[in-house]
Predict the structure of phenylalanine--tRNA ligase.
Amino acid sequence: MAESLQQLILDTIDARSIIDDTRTLTIPGQSQPAASHEDQITILGALNSLLSRDMIVYETHDISSHALTAEGSQIVTEGSHEARVWAALPETGQGTPVTPAQLKKQVGDETAKVGQGRAFKNGWIGKEGDGLVKLTGTVKDVTQIDLKEVASSGTLKAREKTLADLRKRKLIVQRHGQWFTVRKGAAFSTSTAKPETDLTVDMLTSGAWKTSTFKKYNFDAEGAPTEGGALHPLLKVREEIRNIFLEMGFAEMPTSSFVESGFWCFDALFVPQQHPARDLQDTFYLSDPKEALPPEPEYYKRVSTVHEYGGFGSTGYRAPWSHAESNKLLLRTHTTASSAHMLYKLAAKCRGEKVEGDADEFAHGVSTTDNEGKKDEKDDGFRPAKLFSIDRVFRNETMDATHLAEFHQVEGVVADRNLTLADLIGRPLKFQKPFICAKQILGFMRVFFNKMGIEKVRFKPAYNPYTEPSLEIFAFHPMLDRWVEVGNSGMFRPEMLEPMGFPKDVRVHGWGLSLERPTMIRYGINNIRTLVGHKVSIEGIESSPAVMF
């Protein structure tokens, strides 16, 4: 039928030059014009086939009509619910009133329920004692009349309010359709012979290619979707952020140790042993094995001393030191534990020690103050470093739309001599001075977030046990039209750095944020459980776009 319909369209255009309305066509095999929505869909398929060969062009005209529901069709045949209720009752004074229970038996539950209310509203029926009677001898069933008109014409002219009422009563449904105006195309012909799609050896040998018509390439057609795996949105955003760090000259830290000791996760960072973050309500502790191997004795002693008695300009926490608390094994609550490991190795040369493996593999990067290589640089074994990590952390939190017990932390660390807070957060552009270089004006934080597409950043003082000063990072979210917290930052305390062996003039910046929050913002996800977990849509992962900050 497809070819015969195409031929009909071409012959009609050839005779008339135009088909003003495809509803006037009669599809081969049918006796009536193609007025229905289904008929126009059939015609559209034929039009698109001819359009792909430039044989015709067409315009689309949208129309709206109405069709009866099953209940509406029943009313056209049997009358409305209210009319059937009226017909089942006797007139006043001419018979025994009909009780509601009797009415249900006569006309059915649905008709009795719907019809009584509308019949009362129309003034057709009334109560007499415990029963119902007619109040008028004749009625005009407007609902049935309106539905008959809709059935024949698809609408009620200039009576949109009545149509809306019939739709509300679910007696009709609105249907959207199309019809088309068709004209000749650039390659119009009355022949429906399909063009060749392949140039074969036989065509070349016989010379048939000289007289053959070939189908043009369709450069607007979408390619076939490839079969295979797809990267999760978290992995896409992770790679984007990783590339930002590498572009800024950072080296990636190894972070494969999900299990840490209380010493490296808390004590080495100068987190007090009485801190609430170390409670069972916030941290997952291992039941077997329970204790870690002891760290290097001298470093362990320096850390415990600064906690219990103070040192390096600090009074410490003045609280008893617990070896059992320090040796507990736990799932790391932050990747700063990995940063502590790497900073301790970075300070090895400062302590006059050798580190297993290549110590330089993590201790490289562009110096933030350009001190490296100067003739007057102190020969104490220190060299600047810029390190980063992106990996999983675990916290014993109540799961909700924005929190999980397992998530990813993005962390950056910069170590150099005489760093200041301005090197970390920079200054707003209104405070720029001509002789200050751009990186000092912007600071690492502003450069980092600018590369992520976040231009408006501000900071708020906060408390953190291992950084002073400490700052919360806020970014302006244009979609939410408000400032949202995106991370934390600060300068590591001397009580953390000097026990490792760093010289007094070495400063270390640190900042971190979750990986899930920017991913949710980029992909418009409101519930984290649709991003991670058993509710994740595989189809959504396959169709998710690449992310470019």
